[in-house]
Design goal:
alpha/beta, two-stranded antiparallel sheet, binds ligand 9D3, 17% strand, 36% helix
C-alpha cells in the first residue's frame, strides 16, 4: 500500500514514521509512506498557502490552488483522498479496516482555521476526525490513521500478534496481563496464570476481558462479537454476579 501525507509541517511526522511497527513495515516494503510538503505548491515567491476569509473575521484559510496543484502530482485513478478535519466522520477500527483495503491513500492535513470549502466539495473523497478534542492541525490525526491502517497490512505485525486477535478487533477490551516477578511488593499474580492449566488460563482471560469491558466500556458490548456463553456472563454481571462466578 502507498500512503501520501500532504502537510505544511512534514517535520512533525518524520521521526514517528521511522520507528516501531510503522518504521519496520516501511523497511520491509509493506507500506510506501511519503511526506508531501504542501508549501512546495504555494503561490508566488513566498509560496503562500493560506489567506484571509471572504466576509471578514479572523484566522487564515488554506487556499484551494496549492492543494489542487499538490494533488495533481500525487493522485491517480486508484487514490482515495482523505481530509483530516474535526468535522469529519469519526475514525474507528472499522474505518481503519476499510482504508487498509485501498491501494493508495492521500491524507491531507488541515491547518489554520480550516480549509476552503471547495477543497472538501471537489478535491476530497471523505473527511475523517479522530475524536472530539481540538488539535492544532491534522498532523497528529494523520499519524493516528497511518499507524492504525499500517498495522492491519499483511506482514506488518509478527505472527505472535495477528491483528484479528486484538481486543478491539473482537470488540472487547484486553484482559489483565502480568509478567515476572510472580510476587512484587506483596502483590501476587493471579494463581491461575502460573498454575499451568492452559484451559483454565484461556477461560480466565475470556471472562476477565468481558468483565473489564462490562465495567469500563459497556457501550462496546452493543456491537461486540460475543459467544452465547459470553452473553450469559454479561447477563450475570448485570444481575450482580462477578467474574469469580464464572472462572
Ligand atoms: C477556529 C477553528 N475551529 C473551530 C472549532 C475549527 C478547527 C479547525 C481545524 C479546529 C481545529 C482544527 C485543527 N484540527 C484538525 O485539523 C483535525 C482534528 C481535530 O482537531 N480533532 C480531531 N480530529 C481532527 S482531524 C483534523
Amino acid at each position: 500500500m502507498r500512503i501520501d501525507i500532504v502537510t505544511l509541517f512534514p517535520g512533525m511526522l518524520e521521526a514517528p514514521l521511522d520507528d516501531s511497527i510503522v518504521g519496520r513495515a516501511r523497511q520491509r516494503g509493506i507500506v510506501d509512506i511519503r511526506l508531501v510538503n504542501l508549501r512546495a505548491h504555494g503561490a508566488g515567491r513566498h509560496q503562500v498557502t493560506d489567506d484571509a476569509p471572504f466576509g471578514g473575521g479572523g484566522g487564515m484559510i488554506l487556499k484551494p490552488e496549492p492543494l489542487a496543484a499538490c494533488l495533481d502530482t500525487v493522485r491517480d485513478a486508484a487514490s482515495h483522498v482523505v481530509l483530516l478535519d474535526p468535522a469529519g466522520r469519526r475514525f474507528t477500527q472499522a474505518v481503519a479496516r476499510e482504508l487498509a483495503r485501498r491501494p493508495h491513500l492521500i491524507l491531507v492535513c488541515g491547518r489554520y482555521e480550516g480549509v476552503d470549502e471547495r477543497v472538501r466539495e471537489h478535491l476530497v473523497d471523505e473527511e475523517l476526525s479522530i475524536g472530539d478534542y481540538v488539535l492544532s492541525g491534522g498532523e497528529p490525526a494523520a499519524l493516528v490513521v497511518t499507524d492504525a491502517v499500517t498495522r492491519l497490512l499483511p506482514g506488518a505485525l509478527g505472527d505472535a500478534a495477528a491483528p484479528e486477535h486484538d481486543s478491539f478487533a473482537r470488540g472487547l477490551l484486553e484482559h489483565p496481563q502480568y509478567t515476572r516477578p510472580e510476587r512484587f511488593r506483596d502483590w501476587a499474580v493471579p494463581p491461575v496464570l502460573v498454575g499451568g492449566d492452559h484451559g483454565k488460563v484461556a477461560r480466565w482471560r475470556r471472562v476477565m476481558s468481558v468483565w473489564r469491558t462490562w465495567r469500563r466500556r459497556p457501550d462496546l458490548l452493543e456491537t461486540a462479537d460475543l459467544s452465547p456463553e459470553e452473553q450469559k456472563w454479561v447477563d450475570g454481571f448485570s444481575q450482580g454476579r462477578g467474574p469469580s462466578d464464572y472462572i
